Amino acid sequence: KTQKNYLIKERNISSEKILLVGSPKHDNFFDSKNHELKERKTILLAPRPITEISGEDNTELHIRYEKILKKIYQIIKNNDNVDIIIKLHPIQLGHNEELVEFFKTLDSKMHVDLFSSVKDIMKQSDAVISISPENWDLSTIVLESQILEKPTLNIFLNKKTYEFQCINDNSVLSMTDDSDIEHGINEILFNENTINCLKDNAKKHLKSYLVNHGTASQKFANILNS
Prior knowledge:
The protein has helices at about 1-10, 60-75, 95-105, 120-125, 140-145, 165-170, 180-190, 190-210, 215-225, and strands at about 40-45, 80-85, 110-115, 125-130, 150-155, 175. It is an alpha/beta fold. It has a 6-stranded parallel β-sheet, sandwiched between helices. The radius of gyration is 18 Å and the shape is globular.
């Protein structure tokens, strides 16, 4: 509905030309929620690579990126009850290759996943950390983590941020890389009030952000057949 309103108001598109379908890609996410309680916590770190076409790719951004990754890694390693899973976006970008090499130097035993199902990996996790190097966009994993009811921390590498609906709806915890990251990680892993609040807000956010939960494929098929 948000996208429809934008197209009508900002692009003068007729409402009759806009069909609210939802996201067929995410239909099976709505049937994949896993609430198994475990003594050990697992956090999914999903760093989105820097894209050259953004015009923001520079040495300073790469340095800040590696600095925040080191900080996150050290915070998690210092906690004996927390495991980490690294999931990179399966896209052919130079920075993705840099990230693979960076994690190898950080910890030679660390497994960095590229091609496994995001849904399956996220089901093994208790919380998610997403990193947004360019502040004009959020990774799709932020949406997917909310569907699967995983408390999420999104870290921006620039203080200038845009008005994202999920952040305005307080369904995602948002910080910049110079914030108290350890506090943010502890909040999404151990603070039950924060965790429950994020989950409740995510449900409300998804109602307004995404239509046809779990039935978007059928809705789209019906439109094509009509």
